[in-house]
Design brief:
The complex is a heterodimer.
Chain A lengths: L2 E3 L3 E5 L4 E8 L6 E6 L6 E6 L3 E5 L2 E6 L4 E6 L8 E8 L5 E3 L3 E6 L1
Parallel strand pairs in A: 2-11
Antiparallel strand pairs in A: 1-3, 3-8, 4-5, 4-9, 6-7, 7-8, 9-10, 9-11
Chain B lengths: L3 E4 L2 E4 L5 E7 L6 E7 L6 E7 L5 E2 L8 E7 L2 E6 L8 E11 L2 E8 L3 E5 L1
Classes of the chains: A mainly beta, B mainly beta.
Chain lengths: 109, 119
């Protein structure tokens, strides 16, 4: 079956760095997305990786290892507004998104 | 980026009534739109894939006669929750991907969501 695993909740301190991991098992693979979702709002796009390696975009970076079925989202210089759920989603062979349950990130002052 | 609008943003209805939710792609054509449901503290659950000009494809466990989807044009898809019950109360989100001849963008653009409360 298809499965996405990510931690349920993480806590970090304002100004620090946090890494949110995601492992996936899908029927075929056409890339991995990270979305941010604030409570009561729709998800917003953060990143898309289809090749191995690290992609940096400002304070956020995303890494992919296709051979390991593994990705992580790295958030630097954490701000209070980064408190949100972070959703990992893999695109399968049918170009359908398979969603993880999301990681709730709590930022403390 | 592409913009998807959704209307209404929230609705309260009585049990037994029907509610229609609209999803529009504002600046791109969307052959395919996706409808999700999200319960509190849970992840997105894909309900159905809506295809312009044809019947929607429903995920296992989603009642097609209860959740009616119509995708009449390249910019509009509607979800009608028929005979709503309190357990249908949820956050409904639509999304789409930008499509052009020869392919489509993998990124999904989400509407702002509709919070449905059935009393």
């Amino acid at each position: 079956g298809q499965n996405i695993d990510q931690p349920t909740e993480m806590t970090a301190t304002e100004g620090a760095i946090v890494q949110i991991n995601c492992t996936y098992q899908t029927s075929g693979f056409n890339g991995l997305f990270w979305y941010q979702q604030h409570a009561g709002e729709a998800p917003t796009f953060l990143s898309y990786n289809v090749l191995d390696g690290l992609e940096e975009k400002g304070r956020f970076s995303s890494f992919l290892s296709r051979s390991k079925g593994y990705s992580y989202l790295l958030l630097k210089e954490l701000q209070m507004k980064d408190s949100a759920s972070y959703l990992c989603a893999a695109l399968d062979s049918n170009y359908q998104l398979i969603w993880g349950a999301g990681t709730k990130l709590i930022i403390k002052p | 980026g592409a913009v998807v609008s959704q209307h209404p943003s929230w609705v309260i209805c009585k049990s037994g009534t029907s509610v229609k939710i609209e999803c529009r792609s504002l600046d791109f054509q969307a052959t395919t739109m996706f409808w999700y449901r999200q319960f509190p503290k849970q992840s997105l659950m894909l309900m159905a894939t809506s295809n312009e000009g044809s019947k929607a494809t429903y995920e296992q466990g989603v009642e097609k006669d209860k959740f009616l989807i119509n995708h009449a044009s390249l910019t509009l898809s509607t979800l009608t929750v028929t005979s709503a019950h309190p357990e249908d109360s949820s956050f409904y989100i639509c999304s789409s991907r930008e499509e052009a001849s020869g392919g489509f963008s993998y990124e999904q653009y989400f509407g702002p969501g509709t919070r449905l409360t059935v009393t």
